[in-house]
Fold:
Amino acid sequence: MVKYITIFLFVATNLLSQNLQYPEEQKFLELTVPGKEHEILSKFQGKWKQNILLKHTSEELPGTGTIENKLIFGGRFLEMDALYNFSGYPMEGKIIIGYNKHTSKYFLFGIDGYDTKPIYVNGVFNNKTEELIFTGSELDMKTKKNIDFKIVLKIERENKFTYKVYNVFGEKDRLIIEKHCIKIEE
Structure:
């Protein structure tokens, strides 16, 4: 009899604790799986040819390259691996873009073979313009002042997207990097 009471109490306690935890558990699980916001990232998948124009100084520097984009970790993140060439100077870069359901914001993390500092910015998706817009600020080592910037990825059509970087001065944006990415048919 004691054995049956113990089993009953164990099962009842277990069921009761599961019911009390279920709503929190369900909410947590919903935050861990890709959602409709992640579907936007799939539009950037594939291998792309890039035509690039750097406008950092008064002199424009053209470049070309390729970028291979793939969804990773079950569609949670977009990994972008790029190879560039600017007047015979090769460079590589990696960007990870995702949507953080805990903060309800997109994020972009980027590193490259040119510098040791990473870029980490948050952003939003504009449904009307089909643009991922990331904003941030970084210290200009020459002036010791922060410079605001934004990165805009725009889906132009099924086989083309643009990637533009702007320095932001108040209400005025100055385009400093422009990439036109055309999908390579496989």
Q: What stands out?
A: The chain is about 20% helix and 55% strand. The beta strands are 46-54, 61-72, 77-86, 89-100, 105-112, 119-126, 131-140, 145-157, 160-169, 172-183.
